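Task card 7
Instruction: Convert sequence to structure tokens.
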Amino acid sequence: MRILPFEAYYPNKDLISSPELFFDEVSNQYIEFKKAGFFKKTGAKSLYVYEISNTLNTHRGLIASHDVRDYTENKILGHENTLAEREQQIMQLMMLRKAMIKPVLLTHEPIEEIATLLQHYIENTQPFLSLYLENENEYHKVWAITEKNDIDTMIEIYRDKIDTLYIADGHHRSSTTLKLLQNHHLTGKTQDASAILSCYFAFDQLKIYDYNRVIDVFSIMSPATFIALLSEYATIKPIKTGKKPGRKFVFTMYIQKEWYIVKWKKKYIQAEIKQNTIILDTTLINHWVMEKILQIKDVRTTKLVQYFEGKSGLNPLIKEVNKNPNLVGFCIFPVDISEVVAFSDQGLNLPPKSTWFEPRIKNGLLVRNRLTWHFTNIQLTKFLTGKGEFSKICAS
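Output:
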């Protein structure tokens, strides 16, 4: 893998009294914030150690630029389809900012030498940036790797010991940048000008939470009809208190203030196995509940489904279901990292909203600000107003 040091912009803590508000607004106001002095410059090309910690977990990784050739040579694999509309939005923001304000989150097999070097900087040097987010009870700390020998060592480790990287978060950011490069609209005189801002966490530094659903079931059919149809595919038993499923091929269900545990019947699991080598609980929900029972034709576009990340526990899902008697909550067993890797290696896409990766990286924490767009002023105007040929890049 080809990683590169870069000179970063980072928040000026002296001017930020509320990190939460800053991070919420920086996505849309980066240009104004930068002009007003809300960002400092590191002053040297570096690699960056990044630690996110809270009461539950500590995540340690690296931030660098990544040579786009590893994308074009299929060394960096994704597991999601991208949407042209979302790519268009990201492209316009990147062009206006002339910067990447959030890295693509990449993951790889744990490498002892990387963990050791990260640990060395954390234990022996002071972070140049440390922010506490009170609402999330979370600390974000960044150390700069500036010593040439350490930079060279880390570059060599990634080059020699990591053959494949997997996108955990940032499919649209990476695909958008790649399309701009392939269409010759992003240029630069140096190698790092066409690199993609990236953050690297080993598998053991990531956590995948469940990603649950609330579905508007009873606007389609009665509770009795739904339970009868679901009973064809699974066994349903009431439980006294709400809980999440403890293993694969089981989900819990919240209906009109009552909880149930639901286990898929073996013949329907076997039916899925004949079609797919890797079976996810989200696949079973999508196929048998949404498509077969509820006749939802496209789970990606339906307005009948809301999604709730599992890190927040059961309360948000319960609260939403209690608002409307037509709603049913489905708690699904989380996807394992080995399943994400297997899907990516086979060139397959996970079902929509299958994973919720932690940690979540903040917009504007570290910014790579040296992007050069190869557009004339007239072309740029046409692009941003949707009237020129470049407005169609994402659809290609």
